[in-house]
Amino acid sequence: MKGWTASDIPDQTGRTAVVTGANSGLGFITARELARRGAQVVLACRDEARGAEAAQRIRAQAPGAYVRVAPLDLADLKSVRTFAAEYQGDRLDLLINNAGVMALPRRRTADGFEMQFGVNHLGHFALTGLLLPKLLEAGPGARVVSVSSFMHMLGTVDPRDLNMERGYRRWTAYARSKSANLLFIHELSRRLRATNAHLVAAAAHPGYASTNLQTAAPKLEGRRATERFMEIGNRYFAQSPDQGALPTLYAATAPDVRQNDFFGPPLQGLWHGSPVRSTRAKWTRSDPAGRGLWAVSERLTGVRYEALTS
């Protein structure tokens, strides 16, 4: 995978992908590159107008690309169920769980969950489970890819306090949600192996990539100095979103991807560069922790992965 770039993406003709949060940042790049290589791509976006603008930009940058927009608000499980029920694709080969929020002030989802855990993990857990039959029907080559973060190393999932009632700390909440992403992929991979399913579950992180994720929370709160600080960091230290999307694209398309793989830019490059198999915290490979989070997630979302045995 040394020096792997978007030009190395295999032909995706005949494949269909759903990319959450595809209207901007890494999700936009991921959707564009998949479409450029021939995939039919569904842009699953909370804001339909911004999704439509993104679709126009993709068509302009990748002539002949097939993209369409479908509304999806991961902070509302009713919206997740509606999206899955109305999914019109004949097949589904790729589900890219990309959308996320970072370091928000304390907020709640429509269902009462802490926002970062609710959007980054629970929304995607429910979406994957509801779309699982389509993914399993697709046969060999089908994949689920969840986008985590190297910041997962700063926080473990605490099943006794998922909503952080004991004291909310925004960066800890973000780190926990990103650990949850990896635990989810770990447990999903274990269950897929147990049923000999062709579907592969993998994860990726973008390293330090310049996107609007870093500035969203400061802008929301009117913290102009912090917003400016993040903008300077993005400008002078972060890699481009095109580069940051490569680990996700590798996990979604490269032929050598295995169950529970985790890709990101190299640590020695300070989280810059082409994708490699990445380091992850030991607790994200814990079977007991994975089973525990899975059970809690099923209870909270009401979504059960009936096609997979435990």
Automatic annotation (TrEMBL):
Keywords tagged on the record: Oxidoreductase
Top-level taxon: Bacteria
Residue stretches spanning the membrane: none
InterPro entries, A to Z: SDR_fam (IPR002347)
PANTHER family named among the record's database cross-references: PHOSPHATIDYLINOSITOL-GLYCAN BIOSYNTHESIS CLASS F PROTEIN, PHOSPHATIDYLINOSITOL-GLYCAN BIOSYNTHESIS CLASS F PROTEIN-RELATED
Protein name stated in the entry: SDR family oxidoreductase
Native source organism of the sequence: Streptomyces niphimycinicus
Highest classification ranks of the organism: Bacteria, Bacillati, Actinomycetota, Actinomycetes, Kitasatosporales
